[in-house]
Amino acid sequence: MRNICLGIDTTGNWCSVALVDDAGVLAATCEEMSRGHAERLGPMAEALLAKAEIRVRDITKISVCAGPGSFTGLRVGMSFAKGLALPHDIPVVGISTLEVWAFAHDPMQEGLAQKSSVLAVADVRRGQVFWQVFKNGKPLTPTTLTDVETAQKQLTPQMGCVGNGAHLLGAFNEQSNYVCPKRLAWIGIDRSVKTHPATPLYHRPPDAKLPGGKSL
Length: 216
Description:
It contains 5 helices and 12 strands. By secondary structure, the protein is an alpha/beta fold.
């Protein structure tokens, strides 16, 4: 059976979609934007499917970026993925931004020469970072929110460091929230709904309060 996965990311300053199968990339597109993801995502996905000559019912899995990222962007991507999947009974998996960044550092998921593991770290402001350690494509730690100093203690000379928060730990890295939709889709092909449910990954609880100052 041919596996065809649709990758969707709306968690940052990009609106991105990609189609891949077991052999490679079928089509991909992305647009840089700070807002308007909800309005652009549908037309972009429709154009992508037409370009690849793929029907929605041909898709065997949808891989959506689960965050961390923009609260609104997270909801846009998740809602669209589930809405598209439901009528066609397509499984939807959620892949974290951190996992996509770690995959980019070690795409074969075999460990790099002289790098035993990789620390993927997101800058979530307020002097904090959201991080996770991976080895051979698998997480060694849970996702963790800490201050920068605590995260720095996790980093050893044998580790790689990636993500838009890597510079805060003293690692050279371009400061970008970009999540490659092709990598997102490739990862999704091999992930299951049980291990990677399509649920938002928030780096901290919402600041909003219920009447009376109660937390949500």
